[in-house]
Design the sequence.
């Protein structure tokens, strides 16, 4: 599932290739992926407009077009490609045909999608309530966001209404770095543990954004978490898995002891 750093990578990709490009037309091989307009209405709304500088909020990519916004969510398998040739992929679901090439929204499993919004209110109706972007959260705000929470810390980190952009992969990495068990109730985390969590959040987001994805570095849990018989990169203990907040959590039972 693309998370904040992946979508930041897509934002940079769109800016590099399509910013300033005028849309001649839109081809829609799969109209289902346009979620709040018909394919014809979507095409009419964006035809002739130019891509302005794209932005991002959490896992959402926002592409302004002269008073209209294209909102892109990538689901599990979505990504963007820019091409100047005519050969298209079978999973290209929506193609912005521009003056000098094509920006293609490719999504094999057809989760996520593309929406139009005319203003901030319509954007909010599409995205639902979103907390501050994880890249913009400082320590004081982090504490304010966590204070009212009563559930497990992994669920809190992945709640897009609380902090936007952190998903399953990043939450496991953050908790592993902070040595906090994913099922620990937020109310049981003291100031020192919260400080470790914030530092881990800040580091994971910052390092990942530089790569445009969650990297698989030598000292990253991400590198081994999905391997058969995976062991903790820090202490070598076999990793464990269970379902927490409806998602598969991975942690080290020695480094991250349950409370």
Sequence:
């Amino acid at each position: 599932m693309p998370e904040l750093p992946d979508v930041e990578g897509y934002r940079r990709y769109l800016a590099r290739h399509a910013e300033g490009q005028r849309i001649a037309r839109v081809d829609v091989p799969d109209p289902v992926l346009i979620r709040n307009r018909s394919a014809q209405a979507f095409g009419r709304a964006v035809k002739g407009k130019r891509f302005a500088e794209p932005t991002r909020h959490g896992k959402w990519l926002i592409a302004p077009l002269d008073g209209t916004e294209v909102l892109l969510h990538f689901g599990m398998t979505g990504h963007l490609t820019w091409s100047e040739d005519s050969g298209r992929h079978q999973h290209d679901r929506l193609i912005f045909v521009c003056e000098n090439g094509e920006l293609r929204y490719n999504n094999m499993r057809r989760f996520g999608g593309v929406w139009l919004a005319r203003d901030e209110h319509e954007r909010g109706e599409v995205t639902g309530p979103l907390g501050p972007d994880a890249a913009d959260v400082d320590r004081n705000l982090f504490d304010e966001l966590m204070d009212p929470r009563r559930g497990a810390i992994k669920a809190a980190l992945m709640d897009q209404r609380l902090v936007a952009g952190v998903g399953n992969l990043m939450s496991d990495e953050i908790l592993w770095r902070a040595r906090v068990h994913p099922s620990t109730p937020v109310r049981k985390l003291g100031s020192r543990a919260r400080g470790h969590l914030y530092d881990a959040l800040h580091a994971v987001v910052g390092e990942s954004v530089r790569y445009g994805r969650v990297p698989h570095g030598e000292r990253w849990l991400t590198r081994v978490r999905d391997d058969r018989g995976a062991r903790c990169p820090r202490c070598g203990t076999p990793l464990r898995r269970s379902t927490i907040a409806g998602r598969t959590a991975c942690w080290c039972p020695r480094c991250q002891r349950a409370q």
The chain has two domains: 4-127, 134-251. DSSP finds seven helices and ten strands in the chain. The mean pLDDT is 95.
